[in-house]
Amino acid sequence: MIVADCTLIARLIIGAEDPRRAEALRLREQTWAAPVLWEAEFASVLSKYERAGLLSAAGAALHARRALELFEHTTHHVAMERALESARRSGCSSYDGYYVALSEDLGVKLFTYDKGILQRCRGLALQP
Fold first, then answer.
1. pLDDT tens digits for 3-49?
2. 6-13 and 37-51 helices cross at what angle (nearest 10)?
3. In the sheet where 110-111 sits, what is the strand order?
4. In whole angstroms, what is the distance from residue 51 CA to residue 67 CA?
5. CATH no. for residue 54?
6. How many domains would you assign to the chain?
């Protein structure tokens, strides 16, 4: 099991930028977990792609369903206090604090393409 942040989810589901490492990680690690926050972040990414003309409404809906299936049983509630504590300690944003807290709570690595998280959470956060 791993914790996946939205940068990784987008690369896998949408094929954003270069999805090959995300796809290889998915083959190695079948169970991906994320905090509830991932849904709002991913919806924002889908909206941006749609507004830019890179996705149709139907395409965005298809990607949304595919992502929801991936996290159907592995979306976790993270307490706001816990996310704030992780953000405070790590120097990450409060949004990223949710992913950091979940990774710590589950005792698994956080996979991300976010350079800030990778820099601030060495040993916990890894790039695929």
1. 999 999 999 999 988 899 999 999 999 999 999 999 999 999 999 99
2. 50
3. 75-76, 32-35, 2-4, 110-111, 125-126
4. 19
5. 3.40.50.1010
6. 1
